[in-house]
Amino acid sequence: MDDKVxxxxxLDDLTExxxxxxLATANGTLIKVAKGTGSTRWHAHDDQDETFVMVDGSLTVxxxxxxxxxxxxxxxxxxxxxxxCPRTDTxxxxxxxxxxxxxxxxxxxxxxxxxGGTPEDRTTPGE
Length: 127
Hints:
This protein has one helix at 7-13; strands at residues 20-26, 29-39, 50-56, 59-63, 67-70, 75-78, 84-98. 6% of the residues lie in helices and 42% in strands. The N and C termini lie far apart (38 Å). It is mainly beta. Strands 1, 2, 3, 4, 5, 6 and 7 form a seven-stranded antiparallel sheet that branches. The longest helix is centred in the first third of the chain and has 7 residues, at 7-13.
């Protein structure tokens, strides 16, 4: 990579919640930005760990045995195969590190978030 990247500008440019934008690759790891509101669906990644680095807001990573509350400056790794469900009551902005992009239905992305939707746009409760 020859040019510097502003992750705050990239976060400002995101139009969909729970979508990821890859900013760079280093040593086989994708460095991605994402923002969330509401929650994803319960899901697991069998092929990779998922690392959250909080930028703004508060994010609760629900695990089946506990909740992990993250704030600005916090980092948390969800190990591969562990079922989780990130959620937030307000907009949260974060960096995700992983070997591939996980912002699709298999990665827990809710259908309401497509095309800039919000949790109020849900068609099915819990979606």
